[in-house]
């Protein structure tokens, strides 16, 4: 671990990044409603200043070369690990996800993992021609200043997905966290900046006007955004004037198809966590499940058993692995969709009504059976702990159902016959299709969506290329 890293407690993390008393916006604990701290409210003028500073710092940062930048990024990963527990506690309170399970500690650990991978993944020049006709070589250079606009569901991990490759390639970054989860991201950036040179990475905490300006600013060369399809379209429009390159990871409504030869007992846990990791608040979560009629009742029953047995509650309680919805708007969406499905005759197997005994924003894991395509719970992205399970008898119909929506982020196929599963997977319109799993990501495996789920790739070599510009030297 680098000798320049320091460990702070959660209170110190917040104190370093929050606004002065009375000058910020209260940020509440998602589970209890208590005030955690006050987020700065930066303005468009603050953003303009940040971009100017990042632009001025970029040539020297690129000039350090890959080796020195990698060294600094590895030291930054050490700094994250030195502050992992207080970061996880702050994240748990602000976002709502528990410390335990695939949640807050997992997310902080993933930040260090992805940062190290971005630092050490080689991207060598590619020789295109080297013969009697001549010589041509393709290499990648920094794009310039990257605007990184992050979400509230995995605020630290997704911020690192944007920041790490950009810094590695010699870009400087201006990051805008979600208005719902600014403190944890500001704390993460503050920790990284213990190691990085001044103005290489700057966080700006503001509202939608700041995000709109970031996408359209003439000195922004690349925009990375994770969020809704509707906001992604506005970013595309806003970037028309500056011709910023875009990586957009947009909304998902991932389908899973359980083939008739699957083993319900063997796949139940994978299905459950594919759907309900982070209490369902994950872009590439399993959001609609198509199960063959011969297995339907067994799969529904197995999921219901897991739902009843999985503890939900305040994230700082070590025994919980599911938390609240992060904000009232998302809670209302989930409740509306579940209520609508019930009113149409769907069978609510577990959950279905708010868990007010746990807190204001808690909604229990809700398994919804006897539901069909066309119902809003199936057709709209619920982004919460409610899973519609749809019965099918012909796999061709299941494939058609999976492909019929605008979303195309992820999908999955569940079967004991891997060859048969791969045949179905190849026909699904999604950027990633998992077999006998859902949502697993690897820092070296490219990830991105198709159709309304956006475009551009993150992770690995392709992710490095996406925050760079190609240059051919010929002759």
Question: How does this model look, in words?
Answer:
40% of the residues lie in helices and 19% in strands. The protein is of the alpha/beta class and 475 residues long. It folds into 2 domains: 10-250 and 450-474, Aldehyde Dehydrogenase, Chain A, domain 1 (3-Layer(aba) Sandwich); 254-435, Aldehyde Dehydrogenase, Chain A, domain 2 (3-Layer(aba) Sandwich). It has a 7-stranded mixed beta sheet, sandwiched between helices. The mean pLDDT is 97.
Q: From the coordinates shown, what is the CATH architecture of the largest domain?
A: 3-Layer(aba) Sandwich
**Cross-sheet strand order for the largest sheet:** 12-13-14-11-10-15-16
Count of separate DSSP helical elements:
16
Q: What does the radius of gyration come to?
A: 23 Å
**Beta-strand content estimate:** 15-25%
Return the structural class: alpha/beta
Question: How many individual β-strands?
Answer: 18
End-to-end separation: 45 Å
The named CATH superfamily of the largest domain: Aldehyde Dehydrogenase, Chain A, domain 1
The portion of residues assigned to helices is 40-55%
Overall 3D form: globular
Mean pLDDT: 97
Number of domains: 2
CATH topology grouping of the largest domain: Aldehyde Dehydrogenase, Chain A, domain 1
The level-1 CATH class of the largest domain? Alpha Beta
Low-confidence stretches: none
Largest sheet data: 7 strands, mixed
